[in-house]
Amino acid sequence: MKALIEMQNVSKSFVDRNIDSPVFENVNLTLNHRDFVSIYGRSGSGKSTLLHLAGLVEHPTSGIIKLNGRQINELKESEYARIRNENIGFVYQDFKLINDMTVLENVEIPLALSKAKLTKSQRRERCLSIIKEVELLGKENAYPSQLSGGQKQRTAIARALVNNPTLLLADEPTGNLDFQSAENIMKLLSKMYEKGNMTIVIATHDDYVQQYTTKTIRMENLVREGGPFEESVL
Ligand SMILES: Nc1ncnc2c1ncn2[C@@H]1O[C@H](COP(=O)(O)OP(=O)(O)OP(=O)(O)O)[C@@H](O)[C@H]1O
């Protein structure tokens, strides 16, 4: 399997009023192309921080992160931002939709920021096609306040996938949903995984999420042993 993200002896700490607070130290982790991974760990164990490092949102304090074999600290800031926008999709627990934009407009944001020169009608066509895939056709002109939690998360997933990313990072995507809606979101993510050519990583507290994924990472093992992570292939 080809490695998409490799973390070698990665440590991350945050400095607050001159006090250095480590989140984790010397983590070794490989995420391969086409992995479908759930990450479990107690609150505060660093799941979101790990996703932010993998998604080029945060820089490590020390250690090496490689993306497709290339050390990311060698990338120019502009390249960094382009990769993040065009190759990496994010989904959050609280959806992070823009309330005064419709479903269609929310989904269009990454396309509008992308360097790909699509015409307005090509952008619209692409948005409607992904809105259809997440089963929200008919709701494209609705505003977030007019949607259920599950529909909001479907919109966020469509927005994350509109650029056909290589990597989808989901931070507690089912955390704000009732069980039925959460299960439907996991079924949708599984469908998108099967159809696409993506690596998906989900940080979660929800026990059933691992039933859908092919690998499970426990933060405690990752941190205690400094990796390689304990992996269960289901
Ligand atoms: N930007 C930041 N500045 C300072 N400290 C931070 C920052 N982001 C995270 N932390 C700290 O890093 C630690 C790990 O946080 P993180 O959000 O990664 O954990 P988590 O496992 O995702 O938690 P949860 O399950 O509650 O979402 C926590 O102690 C948190 O307070």
TrEMBL record:
UniProt cross-references to CDD domains, sorted A to Z: ABC_MJ0796_LolCDE_FtsE
Keywords for the protein's UniProt record, in alphabetical order: ATP-binding, Nucleotide-binding, Transport
Keyword Amino-acid biosynthesis: no
ABC transporter domain sequence ranges: 5-234
Record-level Gene Ontology MF annotations: ATP binding
Signal peptide feature range: none
Protein name in UniProt: ABC transport system ATP-binding protein
Organism: Paenibacillus xylanexedens
